[in-house]
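Handout, section B. The chain below has 455 residues.
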Amino acid sequence: MFSKGKRSSPPLDIHQPRPRRAPFIRAGLVVLALGSFAAAGALAVVMPSSPEPLIYQARTALPLPAEMTVLQTRDSQAYVSETRIRRGDTLAALLQRMNINEEGLLQFLTHDKQARSIYKLYPGRTLQAALDANGNLLWLRYKHTPYSEEAGGGVARWLEVRPDGGKGFTAQEQTDQAHAQVRVAQAEINSSLFGASDQAGIPDSITLQMADILGSKIDFLKDLRKGDSFRVVYESYGHEGQEVGAGRLLAVEFINQGKVHEAAWFQPDSGSGGYYDFDGKSLKGAFLRTALKFTRISSTFGGRRHPVHGGWRDHKGVDYAAPSGTPIHATADGVVEFIGRQNGYGNTIILKHHGEFTTLYAHQSRFAAGLRKGDRVEQGQLIGYVGSTGWATGPHLHYEFRIAQKAVDPLSVDLPVARVLDAPQRKQFTAVLASYQNNFALLQPAAEGVQVASR
């Protein structure tokens, strides 16, 4: 249930150990699936006679007591079993566990180059086998990549091994499109962000996207309080009746200490997509304040005594102390104007942005793989790693923000902000937002009397 008013309880630890998922989920901790592929169970609403809160109970099929799970198959003559790979498992142990005794199969799997993906067994991935009525192997599948993102959408990849008519075996990599659906969920924070997400069945990747999108509004390390709550609409992918991965976060409403923060994904007919608040204002400002996720300022903009040469000199940027190897991200969309070594700056990247704006990132240990002069980069894209090359006494990022080649203080200057949607785009956005809000309407209503954060 969504909270009312501000909370005075202490901050929560985002990394606090996650509780084990309960067999049923109380109001506010529920996931609804809106799509086509089959789910493992059904959602039941229990109406108590007393004025207690509604209980939402997730009912799922109990697993078989054996190590294997028998699956349905299109081939009525086949018996399909599945086992999940555990840490320390070997191919021999897995085949024995599945009662597969095909002569020469183990030797084929460990030596044939076409079966190389089965050389490495990933704990948590699955192995499937189909046997005929006489116990003969029809096929063996190792689902090494149950889900991956590609330009055309989510896909599932697996290795399929089949008998070759008494001549041995054949192995071939297979790919199939994962089916997309939309899920909606809500949760209330009692111990930690990930603990609430786990109880509501929200994938970690969606939780991380939410924290990244609202990171400029909420400090997820210090600002969370018990009773904070959120609702999300997100993409999910399934293959052969099983959920195999999560896609993009589509919409979120997060109530933090009584304030509502909103975001919705929108891609107009012409232009790239991005996240907007529910008033249609972009959450992706033209520039981020910092190029590092977690850091501290070790030297500010202005005059200082130079740590290497001594004497007072103008410091034309801001230094962010961070361990060597810390990822550096572009603070705005731009083009690589310079990448290489530059005197006292050491390994340096200069990005050219719209108008007269440029940014400089110095003292890097190394650059992002494949990055070249003239490449286009997006805001938040990895461009390099913190180091201590050039005139540096320790690992840190020297960051400069320049207007018409003149360095200004990035901590105090009024940074350009992204434009709001124009009239035709606004009309499209309103229609998209309405569909997200219809999904939210399937959940418990948000708390009344909460304050919408300033936009």
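Note. The chain is about 10% helix and 40% strand. Compare this with the example in section A.
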